[in-house]
Specification:
Strand order of the largest sheet: 3-2-1-4-5
CATH superfamily of the largest domain: HUPs
Shape: elongated
Distance between the termini: 54 Å
Strand content: 5-15%
Largest sheet: 5 strands, parallel
Radius of gyration: 21 Å
Structural class: alpha/beta
CATH class of the largest domain: Alpha Beta
Length: about 240
């Protein structure tokens, strides 16, 4: 029963079912067989754990840190949901909590960067989370919020402006997801920061099973995040950063 359940999950639920459809199309189509076959192979590759790990590992490992004494903890936004009790999304919540821990442990200001296009900014939602969490743990933390940024470039740019306004040295613990750290470091250094990276939310998962070769959504999500970051890093090169 366990094996049948697993097979159903991997074969008949997305993305597995789409791999099968594209592969069958490659067999029976009169035209564009190569296109269908290539699409099925690519989707399968991006949806299995081995390829996902190969893509994500270089992003999540190998970054260096500066020899500094940080003046603040900077946490980058990662999405919120206004309807939830705790507003931050899954990845963003890990960043938020780790930022609070670092701020409390090192007695440093907590600085959150994230605006977004919604009526209520991401920073406003995170401020509610921060108030709730710190009230429960009875830990007072000095906090500041950058509320205008729409992407990582603006995170770095507007946070630099906030540091100038507050008179803080641009020496920071930088908190974001491990896969997002390399691009974040490049951008924050571009705006004059020295950094000790504090990554959270690793997607690299070397625990393989017999099912790892089959397509699954978790691996596809990992591959998607990795490919997105590679394009982001390429855009920095194009912009001369």
């Amino acid at each position: 029963m366990y094996v049948m359940s697993k097979l159903f999950t991997y074969i008949f639920l997305p993305p597995g079912i789409f791999v099968i459809i594209l592969f069958l199309a490659a067999i029976f189509a009169k035209k564009a067989k190569f296109v269908f076959f290539t699409a099925s192979l690519l989707l399968w590759a991006l949806s299995n754990q081995f390829i996902a790990n190969l893509l994500i590992y270089p992003l999540e490992h190998g970054y260096r840190h500066d020899s500094i004494k940080p003046s603040a903890v900077v946490v980058l936004g990662g999405g919120t949901n206004s309807f939830d009790v705790l507003k931050a999304s899954k990845d963003a919540f890990k960043r938020e909590v780790y930022g609070i821990i670092l701020s409390k442990k090192h007695n440093l200001p907590f600085i959150f960067s994230g605006g977004g296009i919604k009526k209520i900014s991401e920073a406003q939602n995170v401020k509610k989370d921060l108030e709730l969490i710190t009230s429960v743990c009875n830990c007072k933390i000095k906090s500041f919020f950058e509320t205008e940024s729409l992407d990582t470039y603006e995170n770095a740019k507007f946070t630099a402006e906030l540091f100038d306004k507050l008179g803080l040295a641009k020496k920071i613990f930088l908190v974001t997801n491990a896969y997002h750290m390399k691009r974040s470091i490049e951008l924050f250094k571009h705006f004059g920061f020295k950094i000790i990276p504090k990554p959270v939310g690793y997607y690299y998962n070397p625990s393989y099973t017999v099912w790892s070769i089959l397509p699954n959504f978790g691996a596809f999500e990992t591959s998607y995040k990795a490919v997105h970051e590679y394009f982001g890093l390429l855009s920095l090169k194009i912009r001369g950063i």
